[in-house]
Inverse folding.
């Protein structure tokens, strides 16, 4: 009985210690990581020049990032709920436990994310502030 209670500590300590060690390593040994991954090759200057980034280009980039995040955040929920709904309909179970409203919101967010990825040029031009 005593052995079973203390057995869980062998799982808890590594689950806490491993992420802490990784975070400390990432924070304080970044130079070692950069050298190991060879990320410093070809970068002689401290500045990163992005070139001629106009307002429309930044809005296009923001549209792509936001559309991608909408898809990434809502795709797993949409698929799991759709599969569960399909399984319930196959077994003639009542669908009262499923939240169809959240499923439809998730589907709407997926469509908006897809449209943001597909029409990023139009969105960039639409959101550009008119200069006087």
């Amino acid at each position: 009985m005593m052995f079973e209670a203390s057995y869980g500590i062998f799982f808890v300590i590594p689950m806490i210690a491993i992420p802490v060690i990784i975070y400390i390593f990432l924070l304080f040994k970044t130079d070692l990581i950069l050298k190991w991954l060879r990320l410093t090759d070809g970068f002689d200057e401290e500045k990163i020049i992005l070139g001629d980034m106009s307002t429309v280009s930044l809005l296009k980039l923001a549209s792509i990032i936001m559309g991608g995040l909408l898809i990434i955040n809502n795709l797993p929920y949409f698929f799991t709920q759709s599969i569960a709904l399909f399984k319930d309909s196959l077994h003639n179970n009542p669908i009262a436990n499923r939240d169809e409203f959240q499923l439809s919101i998730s589907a709407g967010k997926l469509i908006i994310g897809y449209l943001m990825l597909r029409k990023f040029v139009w969105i960039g031009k639409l959101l550009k502030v008119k200069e006087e």
